[in-house]
Amino acid sequence: MQIGFPFRIDGRGRTADADLDTHVRHLIEQVLFTAPGERVNRPTFGTGLSQLVFAPNSGELATATQFLVQGALQQFLGDLIQVEAVDVLSVEGTLQVTVRYVVRRTQQRQVAQWSRGT
């Protein structure tokens, strides 16, 4: 078992845990929605994806964002997952991200999706 995210105490008074698939999903979420510079000891960690909610929507922005996200996931989580595809959609102040990946330890394919709005 892995430590759950966000950190919390469970009903038994212990650190909450998560299974591997949930833990990996939480790690992906942290990479996606942490802004570079937000973590003191890891200034390059993250993508700053939340800021793109306010950017004008265009095909070029979507393509650049897909490369940004895929690169960050490979850099920070490449030992845990193999990214197969990243889809980013921004519509009227809502950002939707879909990541298709394989958990390296179990070779299980997963699809995770997040939405963030203004």
UniProtKB/TrEMBL annotation:
Cross-referenced InterPro entries: IraD/Gp25-like
SUPFAM superfamilies named in the record: gpW/gp25-like
Residues annotated as domain IraD/Gp25-like: 19-107
Domain of life: Bacteria
Gene3D superfamilies hit by this protein: 3.10.450.40
UniProt-recorded name of the protein: IraD/Gp25-like domain-containing protein
Taxon lineage: Bacteria, Pseudomonadati, Myxococcota, Myxococcia, Myxococcales
